[in-house]
Design brief:
The protein is α/β, with parallel strands linked by helices. It has 13 helices and 18 strands. The chain folds into 2 domains: 226 residues, Medium-chain alcohol dehydrogenases, catalytic domain (Quinone Oxidoreductase, Chain A, domain 1, Alpha-Beta Complex); 139 residues, NAD(P)-binding Rossmann-like Domain (Rossmann fold), CATH 3.40.50.
Length: 394
Amino acid sequence: MAVVAAMASAIRGESATDQTTPRRYRVRIRAAVLEEFGAPLVIDEVDLAEPQAGEVLVRLSACGVCHTDAYTASGVDPTGYAPCVLGHEGAGVVEEVGPGVTLVKPGDHVVTLFAPECGKCVHCRSGRTNRCIAIRDQQGLGYLPDGTTRLSRGGEPLRHFMGCSTFAEYTVMPEIALAVVNPEAPLDAVAPFACGLSTGIGAAMYTSPVAEGSTVAVFGCGLVGLGAIIGAKLQGAGRIMAFDLSPERLEEARRHGATDVQVPDADVVQWIRDETDGYGADYTFEATGLVKVMGQAVEAAREAWGQATMCGVAGKGDTLDIVPRLLITGRRVTGSSFGGVKGRTHLPVLIDRWMDGEFDAAAMVSHRISLDDVNKGFHLMEEQNGIRSIIEFS
């Protein structure tokens, strides 16, 4: 907090000892700004205002470069907006809290949550979903819950992204959008839990809880798919089949628990049926965002009780066609948002299980880059080079 106060004083042209009365400050930080769709992000200095009631100032230590960021930057996302500061897969340390904050305190290690958990709205109380609606409307428009932003540049407001804006040295977020985690956990490896890794793990543990001894098929072995493999293994799956076009990613799939790995071809559905006495896998998880693969995941699910779970984000205008008979004969199809994970409740437990050695989250970090190289992170992702690029902040 002393560091932040000093930074704020310098921006106002004061000394730290001049602060005899509370005053609103504005900290100058470096951030990656989406100026226009389809163009590289611009690294620039922006202003960050102090946290207001129910809000928290977080010093970012690490942030993953996720497909969702690239999806919005490309202009394909129909809900996207610019200019804004991108980034949502963050991990850091609480520096300061605003009035009324009780869920976190300065010094806490936290994971940023694009899917908050208020614990009070009708969805949180239901126990059937993680789709908290407490701040959804303003968050979807790029604002904090009070309908304003804490980010600005040249006196003009900059919108927040997914309520997070973690491609920056600091961020201000609602307290209900932060999960306090084990301070011993390395924050570079914690960052992927903020989106991709938890989406996959949670899909197999919370959205479609894999039954012990069952057969699982995972389509796509990027971060989300590897997470689904880990989740299925944690649930005690008997057989985990993994499919990807990259032999390197298939090696990672086997390392994290897949029992069968294969580069898929046009006959992949039939292969799965042949390997399961003609019926199909008990659970299938799609993690590519390709509607053709989604269709294969449905067809490969077991007749009578197979569950196909869609984790990938399809392109704008894409539709999924399903033959009704596949459903009438017992298959079920569902989508999974953030893996059904309730961030403040589930993430601390998942991270503790990683720290206890039940799976290897650190192996997901394939590249470490600086904020200046954020566009390189997008290129690495497009090339399917590695699993996750992590921006590290000094």
